[in-house]
Specification:
Elements: H1 9-19, E1 23-30, H2 40-48, E2 49-58, H3 70-89, E3 94-98, H4 108-119, E4 123-127, H5 132-147, E5 151-155, H6 177-187, H7 231-236, H8 241-254, H9 259-262, H10 275-279, H11 285-293, H12 300-325, H13 347-355, H14 361-373, H15 378-391, H16 396-406, H17 412-423, H18 438-445, H19 450-455, H20 475-480, H21 496-511
Parallel strand pairs: 1-2, 1-4, 2-3, 4-5
Helix pairs in contact: 1-2, 6-12, 12-17, 14-15, 15-17, 16-17
The protein binds a DNA duplex (15 and 15 nucleotides) through residues 264, 378-379, 382, 386, 421, 430-437, 440-441, 497, 500, 504, 507-508.
DNA sequence: TGAAATGTTGGGGCG
DNA sequence: ACGCCCCAACATTTC
């Protein structure tokens, strides 16, 4: 395979391929790339062959212990529906399979193997994923089909930089963001995004119009919850490629120019809301990067905001760089001394945090926004994470698990980096003694209390003066707002200043292990 | 992408 | 006028 160090392999290869004889049948394996545009694997499969099998395999066991959470599955269900509709417009059927315990096929490999044998397919293409378990599985699949003599190729589609390309001078992975991103920008050589393939080859004749053993419908994947709690998610989002581009346009037309400031205020729509779309590959970072570069940037402030936003794509790149190069960090702290951190266990405190009943309005607002919509504003994620880890002394792993199950944008790389950053045990992490004060953060970033009032309606009538510290409100103010603390809304479950002291003590305890 | 504690400065009140 | 104190405002250090 021709490899250019910075990711031009596919363009080079596509050129090469179009000069070659077409293969008979190609398999395009759909994974976290639920889009038609800017999709190199799909491009390769459609160009290379007389007939094509587009296949999605639901095999959550292969991602254990991080099989998709409930919110993520709701998103996936809808995104797949939308993807299949897009394919149908091009007269193409997407085959769907389940693999694992209790299914016709034990594994993804078995599904692909069956399809390959059945159709005598001679090539297989997919876009890369970077979670350690998935990388391991994909390597096996690649080796398996190469041994069988197939043309097997994977592509960079969901990152600007492969996690292994960017290295320090000592040829090590970066562990600090700023030099990492600087290095990335020095190497950035952005190709324009690919278009939707112009031609979609049909299914091989012996598969067309037949029921294929083990294949199923989206509904049969059983991704939707049995108790209908997902209306909030459905109202807040439009999963799928079209929804992704619509949201991007909205962001680019309205708020990206003020992003640097606006992104800090959860009550306004100052952020891009691209994260779930990016996670499922409904849009590529290259498409976003390109679109931002093409914006009018005559004003200095806007230019600055654009860079700040692109830097967020940089953090996304960095998280994948980290999970790939430090593959055990999904469960273990990168900084080893944190294995000795005296994390507490308390069902009661954990439950209060999860349900938004901590007595700290900004924390509770965030946790309830998460529960209702499957998303939480990033500023608030930092606040609630700091609160869990430093005020409640509950482990970042416990927080990561909850986010994993409730976020529609749950992404192993990003979730891991975010939580390790918050706990202070990761790469380029917040120093441990950096403890957010939920009251001050609330007053700074939700100064009118609008965000709190939206998600903690029992406080809605409380005046702005007390909205972030209701326990300090005079009795008259509380009665006038119809609030009885301790029954309508909880008193703080811990005293922040006391909790901060305890956290700093716990930090002292770690020093002996450095 | 912190916050609290501690230090410094300078204006104003006041004897 | 002067020295002293207070304290807000800002800066620096510390966790």
């Amino acid at each position: 395979m021709l490899i250019d160090k910075y990711g031009h392999e596919k363009e080079i290869n596509l050129q090469k391929k179009s000069q070659e004889k077409k293969s008979a049948t190609s398999i395009y394996w759909i994974r976290q790339d639920l889009r038609l545009r800017d999709n190199p694997a799909l491009q390769a499969a459609t160009k290379a062959s007389e007939s094509m099998i587009a296949v999605y395999v639901w095999a959550p066991d292969e991602e254990s212990p991080w099989q998709p959470g409930s919110a993520s599955k709701v998103w996936l269900h809808q995104s797949l529906q939308s993807l299949i509709a897009e394919y149908q417009r091009h007269d193409t059927t997407v085959l769907i399979f389940k693999a694992g315990k209790g299914s016709t096929y034990e594994s993804t490999l078995q599904v692909l193997d069956y399809l390959q044998a059945k159709t005598n397919a001679d090539s297989i293409y997919w876009n890369r994923c970077y979670e350690p378990k998935i990388v391991e599985r994909d390597k096996k699949i690649k080796a398996h089909f190469k041994e069988k003599g197939l043309e097997v190729e994977s592509f960079k589609a969901n990152l600007l930089f492969e996690p292994w390309e960017i290295r320090t001078k000592e040829d090590k992975p970066f562990q600090v963001f700023t030099p990492y991103w600087k290095n990335c920008l020095n190497h950035l050589d952005l190709e324009p995004p690919l278009r939707t393939p112009s031609h979609f080859p049909p299914l091989p004749a012996n598969l067309a119009d037949k029921k294929i053993p083990g294949s199923c419908t989206i509904d049969e994947l059983d991704l939707l919850p049995h108790i209908k709690w997902d209306t909030g998610i459905r109202e807040a989002w439009t999963p799928g490629e079209a929804g992704a581009h619509k949201q991007l346009k909205k962001f680019l037309n309205a708020t990206v120019g003020d992003y640097a400031e606006a992104r800090n205020f959860p009550a306004i729509q100052g952020v891009s809301r691209m994260s779930p779309h990016l996670h499922f590959g409904e849009i590529s970072p290259r498409q976003i990067y390109n679109a931002v570069q093409q914006l009018d940037s005559s004003s200095k402030e806007h230019r600055h905001s654009h860079q700040v936003y692109l830097k967020e794509l940089g953090w996304r790149e960095f998280s994948h760089h980290l999970i790939f190069n430090f593959p055990t960090t999904d469960l273990h702290p990168l900084r080893k001394e944190f294995e000795h951190f005296p994390w507490q266990k308390s069902q009661k405190l954990m439950h209060a945090w999860q349900k938004g009943l901590t007595g700290y309005p900004i924390v509770d607002a965030g946790m309830r926004e998460l529960w209702h919509t499957g998303i939480m504003h990033n500023r608030v994620r930092m606040i609630v994470a700091s609160f869990l880890v430093k005020d409640l002394l509950l482990s970042w792993q416990a927080g990561a698990k909850w986010f994993w199950d409730t976020l529609v944008d749950a992404d192993l790389a990003q979730n891991t980096m975010g939580w390790q950053w918050s706990a202070g045990c990761g790469a380029d992490a917040a120093p441990y003694f950096r403890v957010f004060n939920p009251t001050l953060q609330g007053q700074k970033f939700d100064p009118q209390g609008e965000y709190v009032r939206q998600w903690v309606p029992e406080l809605a009538k409380l005046s702005t003066k007390w909205i972030h510290e209701p326990w300090k409100a005079p009795a008259e103010a509380l009665t006038a707002s119809g609030i009885k603390l301790g029954s309508d809304y909880p008193l703080p479950i811990v005293d922040h200043s006391e909790a901060r002291g305890l956290a700093l003590q716990a930090f002292q305890h770690l020093k002996q292990y450095r």
